[in-house]
Structures are given as structure tokens and as C-alpha cells.
């Protein structure tokens, strides 16, 4: 199946990721120049970050103190301070920096005297000068800088100093890291001397498998105008969809959309001329009814599409809400997203009888620049054979549309959204086996501070699936988790916080960039039948279910009264006009606007449009409100007071969608790992004698990374970048 010659327009928005691990020349890591500082016997691993920049590291197991040695060697072009950082994403927010510099430069550049040098433990909360950590959890081993611009240093770090949110623990997983260098030893802005990479400080750098010879499909937008379509709500936020027909793509290959294929490597294709406008892109698989003859039309807000006449590469210029049945995410990208590479036995399935894919791209054009077109998308590499495991994306939607959450107040530095809980009783029912975790993503908008997907198991809080001390809208990534599995019966608690001090009005939840979201997920395998969990608040008002009406309505419940008097107010809908229930039930527009969605909301007299106020009120009391209160809050209806303790939260995707919100458990108590007072061999501290150098060959170390490619996405080394965005 040779598909590589077909350049297909398709948009995939959601999950692009994978850490870029630095490149390196194996011989250069431990050549004669480097080995005067770094012994291959003491410094187990080496990773090349730039042509002239190398990182060395060595984990020391717990009986050796539970520490990690970390070193940096710049062979040229350094005249001041240098730094390495651990981070939760590719940006500075929340990062923990180790800065090595001369405290008082005496001009003796070749002096390897540690009394001149300091190693500083710093942290950053924004794009500003990192602050000094009150707890200095670093020990300088050695430092040197020559007049020729060569710099080398080594430090000792604790595996876990228990200093969150100022220091990240060092975990056996691929982690975002940064490097930076200053022009002198006064700690100040680094300019363009900085970079990002991924590393696992417990393991050798991973080599990614080659894509040479693999078939691939390019799903890219066909140079679409970045202009909001008719019906769009905001000209600065166009949502555009492109449709792709697998049968058209496969034409002439001997395959069809009935076949199953596995995507094993996904590379974002972001057009250079329009990249600043691309907010995110998500590729959805569509499940149309029958033989793909038509969309189900149950969703009144969905973008209408004529499936009978749908064409390959057809563009829908206004696609803020996805068409019905186009909801299964296959791929996503947002700013900072990199390649996704799956383990050897795992693939993301396409086909299986699902012919159509829809790529939704969200653009952000705040200045309404004219003449912008885009041809971004993704290249999907296909496995020659179907693999044994299907990967999928599990979604935790705690707030993406207005009805889920009330507006947040402006002017609050740390507004914490009430947690969304997927209870243990739910996951024990819908997960049929342990789930292997490949990556975790967080998605908020510009006011987001922090997000966590916390795992609670057997009455214990195990901590978040991913640590990201400072959420960064411009660096949304899928990252490897310290958790390797989720188990049936685990309880997932979704937490989000926001800084609304810059807002000029209360902040709504919704799809626009200036709205907010609380949405996260997990790339996992094996695929489960149900993997979307969507928060929704119970719709019934407990006081209206358990109390009598007032005045002339005293013989019915307050629910029946409120429904009879004003339908928009009852459902908390914003309408241009108000109307009561009898007006609705007798209206010509009832069936097209209301009846298709609400079963039996009106009595049978609606069929002849001659209902009276008494008939509608009686129906509300004896039928509609009974169902409404029971289904939406687990309450009985007045005068029946047998159930007055309402269920106060809900999760679509669970067998019992309404339940009492469990009380979140206290976070786990941190256990310190590491001891900086322990001594290490002098040879590891830059004190290298001629005898040391002669006794070692320069054949390389156990871990030397030698090509500028991303790391493999595996159960322990996957690093994904997910930018979900609706």
C-alpha cells in the first residue's frame, strides 16, 4: 500500500507530542577534551544538546544516597553563567533551574577553585528572572571556565527534596528540560542562548526508529482562507473543518476503509507562513449511520453537513461545533507539539469500517490580518502490519462549554474550579483491564494556572498523573507519566485553577480562546469501548423538587409551578423572549424546536395544540417533574419527601451518571530521597589526573545519544505533546 505520493488535506488537532531528545556524537561525549572533566566510569550517560553542548548525568541508587549527578560541558562560546532546568513543559512557567556561575568574578578564568563558583537552586513562575529557592537543594561538585569559552561543571541533586512547587522530583521517565547561558556571570536575561529537550535522568537517551520505507498519509488543509465562516461567533477565532475520505485515499492501493491500519508515528506539518495563527488542530473519526448515508441529527448545535454529497477534501468554513458523530479523536496538535511515536506493539487504529475523518482547526487571528491561508496538518506513518494493541485517547472533560460551569469571577489570583470526580464505581465498570499509560495532556486557555488528574486508589491519594507546576498556554504538551498503569476501580479527580486578575469581565467556559476550559486526557492502551468522561451539573433545582408551589400553585410542587410559568427560566436558557409551558405546548414550532429533544415534556393534548394551563400543570406534576427530579438529582417530587438528599455531581460516560461527589483525599505525604552530604569519588568531581585519563579508553559510555531525533514513545520513554482544543 503505497500512499506516500498522495498529499491529502486533513486536520488533526489534538495530540501531537513527543519529546525531542538532544543529539550527540558518541565519540565527542568522552573524547580527550571532555574526559578531563567527566569520567565515563563515574558519569554513566551523556546527551548532546547542541553541536558544542553536552549534558552528563548519573543516577546514584538509594544505597549511594538517592542522588543524581548532573553536569554540563560547553566546548566553546560560553563566557558567563550556564544553567539546566527541569520543567513540566517547554516553557519557563513552573520550571526549576540549576544555575552555575561565579559569585564574584576575579578574572582568573582558568581557576578551578570552587570557592569562586556557586550553584544556585532557582525557580520561575513566569517569563521573568527565576527566583532563588529558599531551600537550596543542590551541591556544587566542580566548575571551570577557560578564556577560550569552554565551560564545565557538575552538581549533585537529590532525587526528591520534597520542595514542590519549587523543585521537581527526578523520576524514571522522560522529562522536559531546558538549558540556557548568559553573556557574563551576573544572572540576567539569556537572550537567544537557550533551548529545550527531553531526557530521562535514570536511563540512557533513546534512539527513535527510522521512518524510512514506511507508507504515510499527509493530512493537510488545502490552503484554506483563515476567515470565520457564516454563522461563526467570533471573527478572531475561526474554526474550519476539512473532510477526508479513506476510500479516496486508498484508491488504487487494493485497500478500503473496511480495512484496519495502525498509525505508529505522527509528525505535525505546520505551515511556516501561517503558524502563528494555528491555535490547535484535532483529527476526528466519524461514525455515520447506516452505510454512511447520513449524519444522526440528535445534536441541534452540531454543524450540519450533507453526507450524501460529501466530498473528499471538502471544507466546512464554519465548524465551531463538530458535525454529529465526528467525535472520536485520533490525533491532536497545539503550539509546541512534536512527533508522536508509539511502542513496537501499539498503534492508533484507522479504518475498521469508518470511512470519513474530519480535521477541525482552530485559528486565532486577534488583529484580523487579511489574506491569511493555511495548509497545516499532520503526516501519519503506517505500520506495514497491524499491531497487537490499539491505542486511544481517554478524555476527562471538566469544563469546555458554558452549561457545565458558571462564569468565573474576574480579579481572582487563584480561582480553583470545584473538582470533577470520576468515581471508583465508574471505572470498575467501564474499564475491563489495567490500562497502560503512554502520555498525559492538560488543556486550559490563557488564564489557566495549573491542572492535575489525580489518582485515588484503595482509599489513598497517589498523586497526579503528571506534574506541571505552571500551566503554559503556549507550551501544551503530552508528557510521560510516572504512573505506568490505571486500574479498574481507580478514582480520577480533575482539578483546575486560574488567574483571572487580568480579566475585565467574568470568564465563561467555552470554545473561544478568550473563554476558558478544563480538559485533560491520557493516551493509553488497550483501547476501551467507553473513554470519554464529561462533567455535567445536575439540572434539577433541589429546592424546586422538595417544596410546594406558592400562591395559586400551592397544590403542586415548585418544579411544576416554575415549569408552567416560564420554560426558559426553568431550564436557565437565555432567550430573546419569555414564554410559559402552555404557549410552548400549543405552538407550531414545538416539535422542531423542543419535542425532538425532550420526550413527553407536554401532555397528549399537544398533538392537537389545545392544551389548557391545568392540563399542562397536571402533566408537569404527575409526569415531567417526577422524571426531571429523579433523573437529574435523584430526588423525589413534593409531596413525596422520601428522597431529599440530592446527588450533586454527574459524569457522562459512567453507568450511574449522577452521584454524590466523593470528598477528595489529602495528597500523599512526600518522602525525601537523597542526601547531599554524602561524598562522591574525586574523579567525578572534575579532579581528573593524567593517570585517570590514561586508564580509560575513549570508546564511549553506556549511554550515548548520537542522532538529532525525538525519543521513542514507550511505556517508560514516551513523551507526547497534546494540545486539545475544542
From TrEMBL:
Keywords: Disulfide bond, Glycoprotein, Monooxygenase, Oxidoreductase, Signal. One of its GO terms (molecular function) is copper ion binding. PROSITE patterns: DOMON (PS50836). Gene3D superfamilies: 2.60.120.230, Cellobiose dehydrogenase, cytochrome domain (2.60.40.1210), Copper type II, ascorbate-dependent monooxygenase, N-terminal domain (2.60.120.310). It comes from the Eukaryota. Residues 1-24 form the signal peptide. Residues 51-182 form the DOMON domain. Belongs to the copper type II ascorbate-dependent monooxygenase family. This is DBH-like monooxygenase protein 1. It comes from Seminavis robusta.
